Amino acid sequence: GAGVSQSPSNKVTEKGKDVELRCDPISGHTALYWYRQRLGQGLEFLIYFQGNSAPDKSGLPSDRFSAERTGESVSTLTIQRTQQEDSAVYLCASSLAWGPNEKLFFGSGTQLSVL
Amino acid sequence: TQLLEQSPQFLSIQEGENLTVYCNSSSVFSSLQWYRQEPGEGPVLLVTVVTGGEVKKLKRLTFQFGDARKDSSLHITAAQPGDTGLYLCAAGGTSYGKLTFGQGTILTVHP
Lengths: 115, 111
What we know:
Order of helices and strands of chain A: EEEEEEEEEEE
Oligomer: heterodimer
Structural class of chain A: mainly beta
Distance between the termini of chain A: 33 Å
Structural class of chain B: mainly beta
Distance between the termini of chain B: 40 Å
Helix content of chain B: under 10%
Order of helices and strands of chain B: EEEEEEEEEEE
């Protein structure tokens, strides 16, 4: 696609429910990243994928968070038993390759609100 | 863990004024990126600096990387309302893909 696509753009859920957030990276980009952005704050790293593997999962806040990527394309971030503190914008980004100077292309994010 | 501190956190100025945003850390960076983010959108990369002392210009924006690669600045000349947004610095370290972001500077340029 032309850019990184995320869905849904907005998600309102009740505390305790599970949610799935989807990211479609730019076609051909091998690296994919998930970040979280709380209101008025910078981006918090969650996880990244090199191909379909996730070498570094240390940013996931708790075991309620998980992510997978299939076919070196679509990625899904799942949050189980959502809590109010999970409310934030979840941003996905992709890059052509992976490295310290790679240009990241971000999606518009999913605004998650946990009531 | 690298910690990036941006200042100021908020900046409200009139069109035509100059401004500087700072990004500082006690750690050495392998590279540093500046992003601009508008409401409802993801951040968009403005520039990447990798060499200590490096200066890059992008129209009215000037980016500088400190000699010791621990700090950076973004200077905007003759700011315009279209420059309004959240400016974020991000540092790459030894862990590829794990960019550390600053808290951001919210810039508002009034006509």
